[in-house]
Amino acid sequence: MKIAVQLAWKIIKEKRKRAFLLAVSTSVAALLLFTSYFFIHSLNTSMTAIDGRLGADVIVVPSGMGMYAGENVLSSSVSKVYLDEKEVMGKLNNIEDIKEISPQLFLHTISTSCCGTDGDFPVIAFDPANDFTLKSFMPGIQQLEADEVVIGVNAGGDRFLYHYDDEIIKEKVKLFFEPFHVKNILFPTGTSADETIFMRLDKARQLIHNVDALAHISSTDLSAIFINTTPHNELFVKQQIERDISGVDVVLGSGLRSKIEKQMLPLKLLSYVMIVVSLLLTLLQVITLFSALIRERQKEIGMLFALGVLKRHVYQLLLCEAAIVSFIGSSIGVLVSLSVLYDRQTLLYMIFQLPLVFPDLKTTLFISFFTVSTITICTIIAALFPLQSFFSREPYEVVREGES
Amino acid sequence: MITFEGVNKEYWLNRKRSIKALKNVNFNVNEGEFISIIGPSGSGKSTFLALASLLDKQTSGEIVIDGKKTSHLNDGERTNLRYNLCGFIFQFASLLPALPVIDNIMLPLLLRGEKRSLLEKKAKNILIQVGLTEEHASHLPYQLSGGEQRRVAVARALLKDPPLLFADEPTSALDEDTARDLIHLFHKINDRGTTIIMVTHDKDLAQEGTGLYEIKAGKLTSIMV
Ligand SMILES: Nc1ncnc2c1ncn2[C@@H]1O[C@H](COP(=O)(O)OP(=O)(O)O)[C@@H](O)[C@H]1O
Ligand SMILES: [Mg+2]
Question: How does it assemble (chain A) (predicted)?
Fold first, then answer.
């Protein structure tokens, strides 16, 4: 085996032009396979994340506000009616089927300029530690500091994107006479979160005391409480809350999750189809190319049989050639698509406007390895096709046919 | 060493038409002989050589090599017998164009798992025996003349010391002097005990062996020298 690899490598080096075409076709196939696998992976990760909080199962709002309750943030038409945290939270904590509770407080809609974008932006406070509604739209949101805010894409976020991965540029925005750093932007959500500026709840409660415009809010007020329940118990939880707590509206989430999943399905299917097609194409391409190469070298092959080389050793040599070329080709393909994908990460965010979560290093390595080995194995299988015609033939026949 | 008993070879062109390339051939060669075979082109000389060296299978009849009947052997057994007993020099250029001379010579043995380091010295020796130099070892086939390439093919056939050497028109496409040198080399090899069967169309060269046969339209006849 070692000698077959050595000899194959010598042959490839000497006949570079011949190997080139095979290498190119495998690298194109690897590029396709890697990219589509990469996107599928990103989509799946994003989906899982979205699943986490996209749309609370149950939303608790002050009485009369039920019709305005949004899926993951307060809708912008919030009025100045509040829930009392002390009264509500304790009771909610006693309901068994509640899994997660995430409170939000609407402060004010301010007209300001944020990251060079002018507009009226609702400012909402949330509790990063308990949040499940926003976290998948922004990795690392749990680490939000008191003097930092997170902004939606339409609240200047699209501008921020241009230097998304630039750590040095820090945008600042002044809210309620205090400066805040823009820590990051949310991926587009398609909800009113896209226009919103988010800050920490504890910071907001500090501000209440100092800012006249917020004087009407008391330090235990909340605007809405988003709740995730154990599976299939939404209705049951809603009934319990309505029974136990007075003065609130309880709204069921609209099943945004399944809606999004349905929307994602064609994209996912497309990627899977791309994977299958790219593999089939590789197989076909390699079969065609290799058949031509084998035909061209048939005399050589027959000669080896004639010299008493066992058929399996001849196949080993030729398959080594195919495998080496394909390994190199597909590695190049993966490297090219890797560099394009990562180099243009920000661009991709902007094009797709989707919460694409890029795979971490380990997963990326895995996908690379998967791609290279799949393409290489496919090439070996494809290369077997033209060789198989020699299985049952006499060397002299092979040589004579290869001569003409 | 090799015995043909009523051997026929028929090539099927399609389902209905066939060519009878060898007809009821009986033949025997003993160890140490140097047999020449002559005949017009298309008469079946190459076919005969291919059958004798197990490169092809007869349609009927028996071929006995080194005391072994070969008609019922499977592909692997035939390959091994060929590897162990036969060296073959083709009528045409037969080197792997992508490999240097030394690798070409050692290729069959390397693929059988023999150590490169052990073979290399012997291969270079043989290179000198066939009239080339050690410098040729790293050349690629296209960098050699036709005669030199033929010599490399001879060296490749000799490396595993086969008791039987087959040569199909080894002097074709060679000039007269080069051809003479090559035949001279064959005689040296034959003197060391290797049995040689050579196809040629050069009547003068053919006279020099220990036996002479002629094939005409698939029929083999012995010509007394
Ligand atoms: N593979 C083959 N298929 C069909 N006919 C063949 C094949 N090989 C040889 N023949 C025919 O068999 C006859 C003998 O061929 P060959 O042994 O090559 O002749 P020679 O070597 O004496 O010139 C020729 O008529 C040739 O056309
Ligand atoms: Mg011939």
Answer: The complex is composed of two ATP-binding proteins (HrtA), two transmembrane proteins (HrtB) and a solute-binding protein.
* pLDDT exceeds cutoff 60 at A348: yes
The count of structural domains within chain A is 2
Same-domain pairing of A20 and A154: no
pLDDT at A68 over 50: yes
> pLDDT at residue B30 above 90?
yes
Interchain CB contact of B9 with A (< 8 Å): no
Placement of tokens 């976290």 in the chain:
A135
C-alpha of A118 from chain center = 30
pLDDT, tens digit, for every residue of A267-319? Answer: 778 878 877 887 787 778 778 888 888 888 899 999 999 999 999 999 999 99
Note the pLDDT of residue A67.
67
B80: chain A residues, CB-CB within 8 Å: 308, 310
Helix (H) or strand (E) holding A29: helix A16-53
Query: Does B212 map to a domain?
Result: yes
Q: Verify that A279 and A132 share a domain, yes or no.
A: no
The tokens of B83 are what? Answer: 């590897």
Give pLDDT, residue A188: 66
Write the CATH number for B15.
Answer: 3.40.50.300
Ligand 1 contact, A393 CB (< 6 A) = no
Sorted by sequence, the CB contacts under 8 Å of residue A394 that are 6+ apart come out as B55, B56, B57
Domain-ending residue, one of A254, A283, A303: A254
Contact A313 B107 (CB under 8 A): no
User: To probe the interface with B, which of A304, A396, A400 has the most B CB atoms within 10 Å?
Assistant: A396
Tell me what pLDDT residue A269 has: 82
**What would the pLDDT profile of B167-197 be if each residue is shown by its tens digit?**
999 988 788 888 888 899 999 999 999 999 9
Give the count of beta carbons closer than 10 Å to the beta carbon of residue A245: 17
pLDDT at A353 over 60: no
Q: Does A399 touch chain B (CB under 8 A)?
A: yes
Q: Read off the pLDDT of each residue in B9-14 and give the average, rounded to a whole number.
A: 92
Residue B80 domain boundaries: 2-96+162-223
Structural domains of chain B, count: 1
Does A201 share its domain with A70? yes
State the number of CA atoms in the 13 A half-sphere of B66 facing the CB. 12
Q: Is the pLDDT of residue B71 over 80?
A: yes
Please check whether residue B13 touches A, CB under 8 A.
no
Pick the closest to residue B2 from B58, B41, B43, B40 (CA basis).
B58
Contact A197, A114 (CB under 8 A): yes
Does residue B142 sit within a domain?
no
Of A216, A234, A254, at which residue does a domain stop? A254
**Whole domain around residue A166: which residue ranges?**
58-254
Chain A residue with minimal CA distance to B158? A307
Test site for ligand 1: of B18, B22, B23, B43, most ligand atoms within 8 A of the Cβ: B43
The alpha helices in B58-213, defined as continuous H runs, are 75-85, 101-111, 116-129, 146-158, 176-191, 203-206
ipTM: 0.92
Q: Which-ligand-closest: CA of B21?
A: 1
Whether the CB of A5 is below 8 Å from some CB of chain B: the reply is no
